[in-house]
Design a protein that fits this description.
Distance between the termini: 37 Å
Structural class: alpha/beta
Oligomer: single chain
Largest sheet: 7 strands, parallel
Radius of gyration: 21 Å
Strand order of the largest sheet: 3-2-1-4-5-6-7
Length: about 375
């Protein structure tokens, strides 16, 4: 009996230093993997041990259908680990998938857990706090904003929204359910101003707008895991492009202009450049840190260009994706970089990269993050 008490006390002490992170698991998205890495790295530097809990709906199919009679939800998190899915990938996509998976299991290994609303994902006492974020965990247009992403299975004091994102400027569906779930959160932080507006509109609460976790790490921190892509000549002067919404005619014209000026062009999403296409997140960091210029519609490409003080230009996202630009809007406005929009109308030398004003702002924003974390974690300062 006495030994059991001792073990229980030891477990309670160790649990005070354990954090659970719940986020989207995407073996193909640089920003997703790197924000996850940054969060784990940041918390570990604060002295915590961190578990990446990847919520799994699909493994409960039998229980859901036979016992609870609830609708089975397609689970992208788990689907990516399905051997049938992996074997169906074309060779070039399979190689890219493998590189992402290798990175993830090396630096931020996932722990798959099961969840049903009326049963806890684990005993609440196992972790000091549960973090949900910082990806678009609340975006209903991409089948997110699921109940688990509001942490209903643990006590309210343990629920932390960590730089969570809606990814859109307004909520037009599932408003009542999302509002109900948001009201149950103890500590709410988001990563863009539009998200704070949504929280306030739906709940009357004020959410902290914090910088993306990737901005909490220095260029030196990131270079520690950066790796040069195999078979990619990074000694040449090159321009890196990363477009999630596709390349417009204007982008293509600009690319040709730079090509004619003697720059090599490396397109991250272009399968016709296989050695670049299969780059993993560590290669992504290396390619940005060594580029002469980055052309993009990606939030995290902007973030890492800023971190490494590289010239970059931001284009509106094609195919209606401009509605998902709120994160970039917040970043560029906050860091005094609005001139980096190609259509800003502001004076901007394409290759200019003096971000000293923004770096001063960043220091203040990093302090805001530390204050939020200490408060949410119950740390007295």
């Amino acid at each position: 009996m006495e030994n059991n008490v001792v073990r229980k006390n030891e477990n309670n002490k160790s649990n005070k230093k354990k954090i659970a992170i719940l986020t989207i698991y995407d073996l193909g998205n640089y920003g997703n993997r790197l924000q996850n890495y940054a969060t784990v790295h940041l918390l570990q530097n604060m002295g915590y041990s961190v578990d990446n809990l990847i919520v799994n709906y699909s493994s409960l199919k039998t229980i859901l259908e036979k016992k609870i009679k609830k609708k089975v939800i397609f689970d992208w998190n788990l689907f990516q680990e399905n051997p049938n899915y992996v074997s169906s990938l074309p060779p070039i996509e399979k190689k890219r998938y493998d590189s992402f998976k290798e990175f993830s299991y090396k630096y931020i290994p996932p722990q798959f857990v099961r969840y049903i609303s009326r049963f806890p994902v684990s005993k609440a006492g196992r972790y000091r706090r549960y973090f949900v974020g910082s990806d678009q965990v609340w975006n209903p247009t991409i089948k997110q904003a699921m109940d688990w992403s509001f942490l209903p299975f643990v006590p309210k004091r343990k629920r932390i929204s960590w730089c969570a994102s809606f990814g859109i400027d307004e909520i037009t569906t599932q408003r009542e359910r999302i509002a109900k779930n948001l009201k149950r959160l103890k500590h709410i932080s988001v990563r863009e101003s539009a998200a704070a507006g949504i929280v306030n509109e739906l709940t009357g609460k004020n959410a902290e707008v914090l910088i993306d976790p990737t901005l909490m790490l220095s260029a030196k921190d990131w270079l520690e895991i950066a790796e040069k892509p195999e078979k990619v000549d990074c000694e040449k002067k090159y321009i890196l492009t990363y477009f999630l919404g596709g390349r417009s005619d204007r982008v293509n014209a600009d690319i040709e202009k730079y090509r004619n000026q003697g720059y090599e062009i490396y397109n991250l999403m272009d399968e016709t450049q296989p050695d670049v296409f299969v780059s993993d997140p560590a290669n992504f960091i290396y390619l940005i840190s060594n580029a002469s210029l980055i052309l993009t519609d990606s939030f995290h490409a902007c973030v890492f260009s800023f971190i490494f003080e590289k010239p970059f230009l931001v284009y509106s996202r094609e195919n209606g994706g401009d509605k998902m630009m709120s994160r970039i809007d917040t970043l560029l406005e906050k860091m005094e970089l609005k001139r980096k929009y190609v259509d800003s109308g502001l004076s901007n030398d394409v290759f200019e990269h003096d971000y000293s004003k923004g770096k001063k702002v960043l220091c203040g924003e990093q302090e805001k993050v530390k204050l939020f974390l200490n408060k949410a974690l119950g740390v007295k300062i």
